[in-house]
């Protein structure tokens, strides 16, 4: 029997959040905050850009001033192929930017923490690495990068000083396709892809995924796809995923049989409404909302999640509770990132070639 749930929709008053828009001359495929010790003055963001007129792609590092916010280009790097996924991780002395591409290559850029200059680059593009598009990547600190692709391959890349070495974790030989990946610990990570399925991997137990969530719980929607996964650093046993038809759900490894729904028009809970009915391009745990609702948190409750969607919503969602619209646009919001140093601050990219910076109160 379906459990009816009333979802409360709430839009933040326009005066409560400060919103700044920065038009760009190129299409923005992804964007990420770059951790910086000088964040009290200027902060940095990385943009993966594509110019359809010249069919060229690049990564640009921009500084974001805190007073009278504006973006200023600091450095750039040209990619041989369009960028499909972008991740940033801080090492003790450098910032590491990882970018995968449509042609199956992985690029790693080392940047200076103070100047945001790109100091060195390394890449892996050999024929046996991936065949075609690498859909998802994630960095395990500055030591390892996991990559997943349409070809059904899962690879682990060792980030060395002079070269990149990789080992094949799994090869689906084209019978499966992966679209998202996220580290949970130095040994474990989760993947997702077609059919709303999720897989849990443990390097200490080779041979394949050690646990799986099958997507046959979605009535008539098993053709959907998981686009994004996030795992909270203090609750590695719970991963959240976003995908087709506005679907956002959590998978708790302690109770593996059924997902926990946060939203989605295809969810079994027929009384559940959804702010978005299109593709959920990205999900991240929203630590800012968690800090506002500490008294409501428990070990069994899914922490608040932020999402961006094809139908132009940037919103925070709580389990069985309200959905707070942070930003509403007339075009797709393709990517976003929450500043871990200042969780009230969010950047997102619009299909209409703009970066939006939102500072929540």
UniProtKB/TrEMBL annotation:
The protein's name in its UniProt record: Nuclear pore complex protein NUP43
Organism: Papaver nudicaule
Sorted UniProt keywords: Nucleus, Repeat, WD repeat
SUPFAM superfamilies the UniProt entry points to: WD40 repeat-like
Gene Ontology CC annotation, any one: nuclear pore outer ring
Family annotation (Gene3D superfamilies): YVTN repeat-like/Quinoprotein amine dehydrogenase
Subcellular location: Nucleus
